[in-house]
Amino acid sequence: MPIYFWAFAVALIVALLVMPAVILLAQKTGAMDAPNARKVHKKPIPRIGGLGIYAGFMASIIFVAIKFGLDGEQLQEIVGLVVSGSLIVALGLVDDYKNLPAKFKLAGQIVAAAVLVVVFGVRIDFVTDPFGDYLYLDRIAIPVTLFWLVGLTNTVNLIDGLDGLAAGVAAIASFTILLIALEQNFILVAVLTAALAGAAVGFLKYNFNPAEIFMGDTGSMFLGFMLAGISVTGAVKSVAAIALIVPIFALGLPILDTTFAIVRRVRGGVPIFKPDKGHLHHRLLSVGFTQRQAVLLMYVISALFGLSAIALTAVSSQVAVIILLVVVAAIIYGVRKLGIARPAN
Fold first, then answer.
1. Strand pairing of 126-128 and 45-46?
2. How many Å apart are CA 234 and CA 162, to the nearest integer?
3. Residue 17 buriedness (CB in 10 A; 0-12 / 13-18 / 19+)
4. Per-residue CA distances from 54 to 27, 86, 112, 202, 344 (Å)
5. Using an 8 Å Cβ cutoff, are 177 and 248 in contact?
6. End-to-end CA distance of the chain
7. What does the angle CA 164 – CA 167 – CA 173 come to, to the nearest 5 degrees?
8. What is the rounded distance in angstroms from the CA atom of residue 276 to the CA atom of residue 263?
């Protein structure tokens, strides 16, 4: 069996097996998410499910490293992702118990990202446009990569508002990057995304509506950070067609939801980090969708973004521009229809 199949299977099985223990741990230690006016659940739910996702991913990577071996450069990149990802998990775990201030969480995310970028040298050295022209970042490579890592960490974190939503969207994004990596023969990236997808899918067994456990910041920040880190690891960033537009499309839904949340809060004169009920999933619920219907619709939207990302790597520059224009037009229509850029009530 291919190495990426093993990576997916091990992560899936471990996540499925450890989740009952994580649920029990949360109940025993008080890591419970209480309902409030902004949230949609009606009773306290365990909220450190990210530990199961982390366990599945780590077990998969260790298994692959032992069974198949890794060369020096691959090992350095994986160690960098594991170390920085572990820092993110630790930060999220503390937040799930203590509800850290937003500024403190942001500082912790920057530190974890700096470890990956500065200590292990994983960074975005250049970007390309749809016409294949290269733009080398040089001195701004480090700040751009830090912004990318911290930004995507928070996009997945902010979309985690309905049962199964963040895990499903992250799994779809992982599968998208996996398929593109296989097409480009980037095996390390394929293995990493397969492991992440397996852990997310295993967690979904316990998180899909009605959820038995939430991933909490432990899981949402880990998924976002790992997707961001994997997308700039190895050669995925050198895809000649569009470079970072591929992972941007793969994570199009949470990126757009976060972008419009910022616009909405600025227009409403409220702090950017202040939670509201204006996210896409809130809007869908307000117009009559059930939780399951809203989540499944957002899965479809994420899958369409993923298919667009895959198409962008296989078509000419002219067709790629047409795809981009169609996607932008669809986004503008959806934003106007649902009003997600308007200040929330």
1. unpaired
2. 33
3. middle
4. 19, 8, 16, 11, 34
5. no
6. 52
7. 130
8. 12
Nearest CA to 232 out of 171, 293, 177, 313 is that of 177
- Picking from 54, 117, 36, 39, the residue whose alpha carbon sits closest to that of residue 80 is 117
Rounded to the nearest 5 degrees, what angle is found at the Cα of 215, between the Cα atoms of 85 and 171?
75
Residue 99 one-letter amino acid: N
Q: How many CB atoms lie within 10 A of CB 163?
A: 24
The dihedrals phi and psi of 344, each to the nearest 5 degrees, come to -75, 155
What are the backbone dihedrals phi and psi of residue 287, each rounded to the nearest 5 degrees, phi first?
Answer: -95, 10
Q: In degrees rounded to 5, what are phi and psi of residue 25?
A: -60, -45
Pair of tokens at residue 115? 């470890």
Query: Which tens digit of pLDDT belongs to each residue from 109-135?
Result: 999 999 999 999 888 877 765 555 667
Can you read off the two tokens belonging to residue 281? Answer: 């999933």
Residue with tokens 């890592």: 149
- At 79-89, the pLDDT tens digits run 999 999 999 99
Res 3 pLDDT > 80: yes
Q: Which amino acid is at 187?
A: I
Query: Please, are residues 196 and 184 in contact by the beta-carbon 8 Å criterion?
Result: no
Which pTM was predicted?
0.88
> DSSP alpha helices (H): ranges in the chain?
3-29, 50-68, 72-98, 102-114, 141-159, 165-183, 187-207, 216-231, 245-250, 252-268, 280-286, 291-312, 317-338
| Integer angstrom CA distances of residue 152 from 167, 170, 339 | 14, 11, 23
Where are the domains positioned within the chain? 3-239
> Considering only CA atoms, which of 272, 226, 217, 225 is closest in space to residue 98?
217
